[in-house]
Amino acid sequence: MDRKRALIYPYDSESAFLLRFNHLNKVFNSVGVVSPRGWALVGKDAGTADGGGEIGLIVAKDFEEYNDKDYDAVVLVDSFKELDFEKIVYPKLELQVSKGKGIISLTKIESYHLKLLEDLCNSNNVSFQSFVDDKKPNMPKLTNILDIDVPVIFVLGLGDRTQKFNIQLSLWEGLKRLGYNVSQIGSKSYGSIFGFHSFPDFMLSDDISEQNKVILFNRMVKRIEINEKPDVIIIGVPGGIMAINKDIAQGFGIIPYMISQAVKADASILSIYYEEYSEDFFKEIELLAKYRFRATIDCFNLSNIKIDYAEVEQSKQMSYLMVDKAFIDDKKNKYKGVNKPFFNIFNENDQRDIVQYIVDVLSGEEAIEDVL
Amino acid sequence: MDIKDAFIHTFNTRQGYYLYDVNTNSILKIDKNLYEYINKRKNGSSEIKEDLEEKINKMRDQGFLSSKRVEKMEHSFSSLLPYVIKNRLSSITLQVTQQCNLRCEYCVYSGSYKNRIHDDKSMSFDIAKKGIDLLIENSSESNMINIGFYGGEPLLRPDFIMQCVEYAKEQAEGQNILFHMTTNGTLLKGKIADYMAENDVQILVSLDGPEEIHDKNRKFASNGKGTFKVIMENIAELKKKHPEYVKKNISFNAVLDGTTDFHCTTKFFCEYEDIKDFRINTASVSNQYSNKEIRMKESFYIDISYERFKFLLYKLGKLDKRYASKLYETEFAKSIVSINERKNYKSVSKKEHHGGPCVPGLNRLFMDTDGTFYPCERVSELSEHMKIGNIYDGFDLDKMDKILNIGRLTEDKCRNCWAYRFCYLCAAFADNIEGLSKEKKLSNCVRVRNDIEERMKNYCMMREMGYAFNDEAAYALEGEVL
Ligand code: SF4
C-alpha cells in the first residue's frame, strides 16, 4: 500500500524520530515538517530539533512553503512545548482540510477539539485518522501473574526526553535485520504506525486500580506471546524510573514499577540524562533496578539532554538543556570505569552495536536452556 | 580520620548546639558536650575523650563528618556554554536609552558610581530587532522567553517599546513571551500605560518610601523637584483603568537608603492606602561599584533588625500580622525558607563551583544601546571583561567561562570554605573595572559567611520555637484534595 505523503506539525524534538525512522513507518511518509516560528527551528535542518545530527529536511514556518501537490496529509504530533489549539493549530488545519488534505493524529486531543476536527474533516470529505490507543479493557477476574517464556527486553529511562523511543526503534529494526521475530510494546501510544503495539491507554487510566493494571499488562504481553510467537519481546517503559529529587517526581517510577511486576525482564537498557555522574551513581542505580524492578541494567544510553536543576528549583517546571551528538560521543568514553557499556543512540555505530550487545546478553543466558 | 579534618562548621543558638556537615549539606543538632569537644579538637586540642569519640564514630558510620573537599572549582555548565547560547537563551534586557528624566543621588548613571554615566545614546530599532531575533533563534529549549526594557528611563521612548513588543510577538509565534520593564514611573500614563496593560508587561517601579524619603533621592532633572506625587497619580490612574493588570503585574522596588528613617519606610509600604497591596522588593544602596563608602545610620540598622524580629514573631504566631512588615516576606523566603529547602547530598563532588554565579546568557542577558552584551544589567558597562559579546560578532565564550567560573580565582580558599554551597558572590563582586580581582572578591567572604551562619541560626531557632516549615505547603492543597 502506498504511504500517504505527510507534513509533520507542530514539529520539534518530540517528533524527530518520525523522520529518523521514516523508513519503518507503515502509515505515512514524512516529507516535510512545519514548526511555529517562535520554536527556533524554522529554516534549520530538522535534525537540530533533537541534536541527533542532520536529517536533510529544512523546517518550514508554514504549510504554504510546500507545494500543494507534494503532500496528502498533515500529521498532528505531540510537542515539547504546548501550542494553543484554537488560536494557532485549528486555523492552520482548517486551511489544510479545505485544500483536501487528510489529518492523521498521533496526539491525544481533548474531546471538544476532537469533535471540532472530526466535523471539519467530515464536512470537507477528507479522512481523519487517530493512532492513539484508547481501547477500554475488561477487568480481570484473577490476580495471578502468568510467566512470559520468551526473552523480554526493557527500555527504561531516567525520565522523559531520554530518547527511549529511538532506542526501541533501533532495536526493532536491528533485531529484525538479524532475522529475529520481534514483538514490541512501544512507550508511546501510537506504536501501531510502525507495526508494533502502542503503550496501552489503560495503564494511564485514573479509573483502574494499580493491581488490575499489573494483571492487564501481564495478560496483554502473554497474548502477544501466544499470538505472535516472537523470539523476543521489547517493552518500552514510559516515564522515569524514580523521582530525581524533591522537585522532579518523574511519576515516582510508578509505571515502570507496575510493568516490572507484570513482566520480568531478561535484559534491560537504561537511558540517562547527560550529567557528569560519579561511578557510585551507577552502582546505586543498578541496585535500585535489581530490587525495585527485578531487573539487571545491562547497558546505559547517555542521552543528549541535561536537566537544568537550578531552573527547575526556581520555576517548579521541567527545564532542559540540549547538547549534540558529538559532545555525547566524547563524554560516554569517560565512563570506562563502570563495567557496563555506554551507548549514544544518535551515533550510527552505536545503533548497530547496542543491538548486537543485547543479543549477546540474551544468548549469554543459554548456559541454562530453560528455567521451568 | 581525625575530627580536626572534618568538613564542618559549628554554631549555636540560645537553645541548641549545631553542626553543619558540608558534605551532606545537613544541619545536625548535637549535645553541648560534644559541641564543645569538637570545637576544642578543631582548635588544636589533643585531649581525647573516649565516650565522645564513640559518638563521633557513630556519626561517621551514618555518613557524616567526611573530610572530603571539592578538588576543583568548576561550574557544571562550563563545557555546556556553547549549547546554552545555541538553545537555551531565555531573556534579553534592552537598554532602550541611557537618558533619564530624573537625577537620583545613588543612581549608577549619576556620577557616584564607576559603572556608568548618563549619556545621550539610545538604541536603534535595528539593534533591538537583532537582539530579539538572537533570543528567539536560540531559545528552542527554553520554556519561555523574557524581553525587558531598561534605561536610563525606558518610557522616554514609548514608540520604540511598542515597536519592539509588536515585533517580538510576530516573530515568536508559539513561544510564551513575558515582557518586563524597570521604570521610575513618572511617565507611566496615557497611551503607553494602556498599551502596557494590554500586553501584560510586568513593571517594576522604583519607589523608595513616603514622599519625604523618596523625594530625597529621586528628583526631576529639569527642576530638581521630587517625583513622588507624579508617580502616585500615575499608579492611581492605572489602577482605576486596569485594576486586574495592576494587581498582577506592578510591583515596587525600594532602594533602602541607610541614612533615612527605616521605620517610616516600612510603615508607608504596609499602611499607605494606594501602596499596601503591592509586592515590594527591597535593595540596599549598592556598594559594589560605588566611588564612596556607603554607611548606614545605627538607628536604621536597629530599626531593620527590630522589624525582622517582629516578622519572625508573626511567623511563629506570636504577633498579629498587622504588626509585621511585609518587606520581610521575600527576605524570609530567600534567607530562611531556602535553608529548609536545601537538598541533601552523599558528599561534595570532585568538581563543583560555589554558589553565586548565574550562567551568563542563560537567564539574564543585557544588551546596551550599541548592541554589546553583558551577563546582566547590574554589572559595569565600563568593565571590559563583563562584555561577553555583541550583536555583530556573537558571544565570547572565553569571557563567559571566566565569569561563570569566578571561583577559580579563589579556588584555594573556596575549596575549604564551609559556606561554599550558599555563597552568593558572582563575578560582579570581583570586578574592579581594571580586572577581576581576587582580593576584591575575598574582601566579601567574612560578610558572606556571617550572613549564612545567621541564616542557619535563624532557621534552627525557628525550628526550636516550633515553626513547622512545611505546613503552609501541606495545606495549600487542602481545597483540592481533602
Ligand atoms: S565566601 Fe569566599 S571563600 Fe567562601 S565560597 Fe564564597 S568566595 Fe569562596
UniProtKB/TrEMBL annotation, chain A:
InterPro entries: CHP04066_peptide_maturation, P-loop_NTPase. Gene3D superfamilies: P-loop containing nucleotide triphosphate hydrolases. This is Peptide maturation system protein, TIGR04066 family. It comes from Lutispora thermophila DSM 19022.
UniProtKB/TrEMBL annotation, chain B:
Residues 84-322 form the Radical SAM core domain. CDD domains: Radical_SAM (cd01335). InterPro entries: 4Fe4S-binding_SPASM_dom, Aldolase_TIM, Cys-rich_pep_rSAM_mat_CcpM, MoaA_NifB_PqqE_Fe-S-bd_CS, rSAM, rSAM_sf, Sulphatase_maturase_rSAM. Keywords: 4Fe-4S, Iron, Iron-sulfur, Metal-binding, S-adenosyl-L-methionine. GO terms for molecular function: 4 iron, 4 sulfur cluster binding; metal ion binding; oxidoreductase activity. Its cofactor is [4Fe-4S] cluster. Belongs to the radical SAM superfamily. Anaerobic sulfatase-maturating enzyme family. PANTHER family: ANAEROBIC SULFATASE-MATURATING ENZYME HOMOLOG ASLB-RELATED. This is Radical SAM core domain-containing protein. The lineage of its organism: Bacteria, Bacillati, Bacillota, Clostridia, Lutisporales.
